[in-house]
Design goal:
alpha+beta; 25 strands; five-stranded antiparallel beta sheet; 6-hairpin_glycosidase_sf; five-stranded mixed beta sheet
Length: 573
């Protein structure tokens, strides 16, 4: 059944597009191992394998596919997904760790890379959340036990002394004795997020202990984050690598919220606020503070989104608006839907088995997310840094899909009988539907399905309060209200609508903001034109695949036939 809805951003539809890429990037000639990267600027475009293809890539694809199917209901490519799942389980050895495999065309040494393990336990957790499969729980329990067993344990912190574990143990006993821990954020801090969720789902005590001691390592002993919240930019700390730092903040924010530790939340906020000073208001982030400063990863943006949501849920409600700008802008723009500029080969004549493929790259990667983008261009080829590298990376495809899910699943939330509309995005739910007319009109229509004890909706800070209106229609009765009425505002930015009846329609209107800002990205300045929370123009414009130049806005929102995904039970991540 379809109805008429605003033709504006729908995250669940974007998730269905992402499934196309997650399935399309499988290498069917190489046991369905997915390609890791793509160069779309080359003529013709090609995809390549990399040493991330195993635990990391498979974990991200399984996690992303489960979340995207949950959002969209799309079933395309399930046979490929099953191969991904079988491969992932096949990478485990008897010691419970997930190992990178021997590659026929590269001199890669098999090892259990610690970055990979984060994606592995992430996917097993989402997989178990979806199915409750006992064999998945058994694999996850053994994996968590292995992660605990191999950790070096000091009095109040645990850590890993190398980036890669081997079947015979750590490569160097001397590294343990000298406490030569590699970057703690990359190898320990980011692990906290999936481990904590696995503990929440199953009560696994090993997972909680790892979270506790890794968090202590990061906050109390590591030096990754400095006293003012800034990132340590030393070479030993990966030059302040943003993805691993922001992913660690996401993890510790969740741990602070789970344990009720307000000091941890405040610590994360200080670091997050510093990070925001290095990013644009629409969501572009540096890669690091030195060599990769000009290379934005979609992974980093999704970490910003996830951390901001946890902070907002913890009482810092101003971050709802910050995150909505990220969702509407650089996350949406980073998804590759228009491939008219990409040249692809229609056959496999020039493919190199187990290494490189030119075959229908544009078609197979539609729906993926930017690996490294400029603020104004999908293709990053600047004079600074490393020049042109990868246009697509599989990690960013998995992360981008998770970013869609985080936005979608937190648009409407329920707590203690209060239904809160946090993001002004199209979204359906068992309680109500949100119809968003933004950025064309300052208008949101709520269609209520079930009686709601207490309903509130976030109003953007730029909308003020004196000109906000709402009209309620129920059973033929029409009532009106204003944002200027006393006792209408809660939690600074939320308009309190109070009880709502099933069948009621509530139309909220407010003035749009039209403004320009100057956004700094590692010394480069971009003049950015905003309509509400959406960027509708950027100067200078990009040259290869320009971003923010094709957005069409109208005085009246376009409408179309469609409907929303509504589930009685949703994943909570």
């Amino acid at each position: 059944m379809t109805k008429i809805i605003p033709d504006t951003l729908m995250l669940e539809e974007r998730a269905a597009h992402a499934i196309n890429a997650m399935i399309g990037m499988a290498d069917r000639e190489y046991n369905y191992i997915p390609f890791f990267a793509a160069n779309l600027n080359h003529k013709p475009a090609y995809m390549t394998h990399g040493d991330w293809d195993f635990g990391s890539s498979h974990g991200r694809m399984i996690d992303g596919l489960i979340l995207a199917r949950h959002m969209s209901g799309e079933t395309y490519g399930q046979e490929v997904e099953e191969r991904y799942r079988a491969n992932l389980l096949g990478f485990f050895k008897e010691d419970g760790m997930s190992y990178r495999q021997i590659n026929p065309s590269h001199e890669w040494e098999p090892n259990a890379n610690l970055i990979d393990q984060r994606a592995v336990i992430l996917s097993l957790t989402t997989w178990f959340m979806e199915t409750g499969d006992p064999k998945v729980k058994e694999a996850a329990d053994r994996h968590v036990a292995a992660l605990k067993r191999i950790a070096v344990k000091e009095r109040n912190v645990w850590y890993y002394p190398a980036s890669e574990y081997k079947e015979g143990g750590w490569p160097s006993a001397n590294a343990v004795q000298l406490r030569l821990a590699p970057d703690p954020a990359a190898f320990c801090g980011r692990l906290v997020m999936p481990l904590l969720k696995y503990h929440e789902l199953t009560g696994n005590r090993d997972a909680f202990e790892l979270c506790e001691f890794f968090t202590a390592l990061i906050v109390e002993r590591s030096g990754v984050f400095q006293a003012d919240g800034s990132f340590n930019d030393s070479l030993a700390y990966r030059s302040g690598h943003f993805h691993t730092r922001l992913g660690t903040l996401d993890a510790i924010a969740r741990f602070g919220a789970f344990t009720g530790d307000a000091a941890k939340i405040a610590w994360v906020k200080r670091c997050y606020d510093w990070a925001l000073t290095k990013c644009t208001a629409f969501g572009w982030t540096p890669g690091d503070l030195h060599e990769q400063a000009y290379e934005h990863e979609t992974c980093s943006l999704v970490d910003l989104i996830a951390t901001g949501i946890t902070l907002a849920k913890s009482g810092y409600v101003e971050y709802w608006g910050v995150v909505e700008r990220f969702l509407r802008n650089h996350l949406a723009e980073s998804q590759l839907l228009d491939l008219s500029w990409v040249e692809q080969a229609e056959d496999k004549a020039n493919d190199i088995p187990y290494d490189l493929s030119y075959y229908k790259v544009a078609e197979r990667t539609r729906g993926s997310f930017a690996g490294y983008s400029a603020p104004n261009d999908f293709v990053c080829d600047v004079n600074e840094g490393r020049g042109h590298t990868n246009d697509l990376q599989l990690c960013c495809l998995g992360s981008g899909t998770r970013g869609l899910f985080m936005g979608w699943s937190n648009t409407i939330t329920e707590k203690n009988g209060t239904i809160s509309v946090n993001f002004l995005l199209n979204r359906g739910s068992k309680w109500l539907d949100v119809n968003s007319y933004l950025p064309h009109e300052g208008k949101v229509v709520l269609e209520v399905h079930r009686p709601i004890e207490r309903l509130q909706i976030r109003i953007p800070e730029w909308a003020g309060f004196t000109k906000i209106r709402f009209v309620r229609e129920s059973g033929g009765q029409v009532t009106e209200g204003r944002g200027s009425e006393p006792s209408r505002w809660v939690n600074k930015h939320f308009l309190l609508l109070g009880p709502a009846e099933a069948g009621e329609t509530i139309t909220v209107t407010f003035p749009l903001s039209f403004r320009k800002t100057l956004e700094n990205a590692v010394g480069q300045t971009f003049e950015t034109e905003w309509r509400g929370d959406d960027v509708v123009g950027i100067t200078p414009q990009g040259k290869r695949k320009p971003l923010y130049t094709g957005r069409k806005v109208y005085d009246t929102a376009p409408m179309r036939e469609g409907d929303y995904r509504r589930l009685d039970k949703e994943f909570i991540w």
